[in-house]
Amino acid sequence: MQKRLVLDQTQISIIISRFCHQLIENHDDFDNTVLLGLQPRGAMVLDRIVQRMREIRQLNLKYGYLDATFHRDDFRRRDLPLKANETRIDFLIENKKVILVDDVLYKGRSVRAAMDAMIAYGRPLKVELMVLIDRKYTRDFPIRPNYYGRQVNTLESQYVSVEWQSQGYPEDAIWITEKESK
Amino acid sequence: MQQLSTRHLLGIKGLTETDLQLIFETADNFKEVLNRPIKKVPSLRDITIANVFFENSTRTKLSFELAEKRLSADVVNFASGSSSVKKGETLIDTVNNILAMKVDMVVMRHSSPGAPHFLSRHIRANIINAGDGTHEHPTQALLDAFSIREKLGEVAGKKVAIIGDILHSRVALSNIFCLQKLGAEVMVCGPVTLMPRHIGELGVKVEQDVFKALQWCDVANVLRIQLERQQIKYFPSLREYSLYFGINKKLLNQLDKEIVIMHPGPINRGVELNSDVADSDNAIILQQVENGVAIRMAVLYLLAGVK
A39: helix, coil or strand? Predict the structure, then answer.
């Protein structure tokens, strides 16, 4: 089984801290900015960011979890339908700056669906995208992240897996694996 | 990643417990969608659904239509009263003509038990049974069980009494199947004349005393007396029925516990349910209606996803 480590626990932690500082630099006291973690895996990244942000600065962060399953463009086109996850957003995003948070940016289709789903909560002032891993040269849509942890060159035959200690893995890690060996 | 074990919803009988849980979990998500400022998702935008109602309906038809529109499906409505059925067209011909207009799903209500099953063997579209005679009304049972789950946390282990006209009720049969699959205990209560002869063989308790039934249960699902299906008189008068089987606040106050009151509608106030009960905090009748849209969205979405 071919497996290559992209980021280890320390590196992920450094990236999360960097994300927080970049956000504070660009969004000041967050009085007009909200964070949305894309379900299911972006929510884990968002939780880490929120946790670290609270250690850095006392901020009144507004954040929620957005599920875009019902807005996907591959419904009835894939073998099995995707199971929806919980959407938990208890605020409107009308005239707010929205930061979408996900773990891996690949084809850009999930982000497109998420932007579609997000509009149900109002017309945002501005939308930014933050991802831990940006898989370069694989995009189907003209979508580019505003913040990324690491850019990687990958093949279609590869899969980027993100493992979190909170999910029972020995430590936080991001791997590139061959799809066959998954 | 799961899908339903069937491509038609003909009755609860044909569903597995996993199917039921999948429908409930999906309905949870749609309930959240229904509370958004924009209550619409684009999932079924390439699907056309025909609502074919050979029998009168208000809330089921409205609920299905709303669910379809919330999912962005194209909807065509058909009511037999104003159609060629009156000119002698057969069921298959009617539906095939609708399907020739490239319809993907058919939601059908019919007065003959088994009509949707018959249709599912002859046409390619997904069929959803919105009530077939006195047989099944699966989406009503799903929304009833979903409402119990929402109110009491879970259905397993709960005691549910179905009270009223069991003989003519498709809601009763679907509810019995659904609640039993989910691990609830079911009792039916009503006049002997309105009780199917072999109902006990379905594994339900049978009771004639409404007070004893209420004392036993956690949830009372009260059914309407279906006068339109009764060819003969099954009880002397509505007044007498109300006296022996009607549920009022006085009766509930005599119980040593709080119970949940449900009713699939339309209510005959003063017959099976008094206003002081129907409008009380014990009743979750309007929550049932709200949940109906979420459940029907879940069913339509999941059936559309089955390959």
Answer: coil
Contact yes or no for A70 and B29 at CB 8 A: yes
Look at the alpha carbons of A136, A140, A144, A147 in this order and tell me if their dihedral is positive or negative.
negative
Q: Does the pLDDT of residue B111 top 80, yes or no?
A: yes
| Cβ-Cβ contacts under 8 Å for B150 (sequence gap 6 or more) | B287, B291
- Cα–Cα distance between B223 and B171 in angstroms, integer? 8
Lowest mean pLDDT among B117-126, B211-220, B223-232: B223-232
Mean per-residue pLDDT of chain A: 92
Asked whether the domain spanning B138-288 has the same topology as the one spanning B12-136+291-305, the reply is yes
Boundaries of every domain in chain B: 12-136+291-305, 138-288
Q: How many residues does chain B have?
A: 307
In three-state secondary structure terms, B109 is: strand
- Please name the residue of chain B whose CA is at the shortest distance from the CA of residue A68: B41
Class of domain B138-288: alpha beta
Report, as an integer, the average pLDDT of A33-60.
94
Domain coordinates in residue numbering, chain A: 3-69+85-181
Q: For testing the chain B interface, which of A36, A69, A73, A76 should be mutated: the one with the most B CBs within 10 Å?
A: A76
B33 → chain A, closest CA residue? A87
Contacts with B5 from chain A: Cβ below 8 Å: none
The minimal CB distance from B1 to the residues A67, A76, A83 is found for A83
Distances (CA, A) of B161 to A123, B17, B205, B240, B299: 48, 21, 9, 21, 26
User: Quick one: pLDDT at residue A182?
Assistant: 45
**Interval B26-39 mean pLDDT:** 92
Burial of residue B238 (number of CB atoms within 10 Å: 0-12, 13-18, 19+): middle
- Is the CB of residue A67 less than 8 Å away from at least one CB of chain B? yes
Helix (H, G, I), strand (E, B) or coil at A159: strand
Q: Which CATH class name applies to A3-69+85-181?
A: alpha beta
Q: What is the mean pLDDT of residues A119-131?
A: 95
CA distances from residue A33 to B118, B159, B249 in whole angstroms, order as listed = 56, 48, 51
Domain B12-136+291-305, classified CATH 3.40.50.1370, yes or no: yes
Provide the pLDDT confidence category of residue B154 given band limits of 50, 70 and 90: very high
Inter-chain contact A121–B28, Cβ cutoff 8 Å?
no
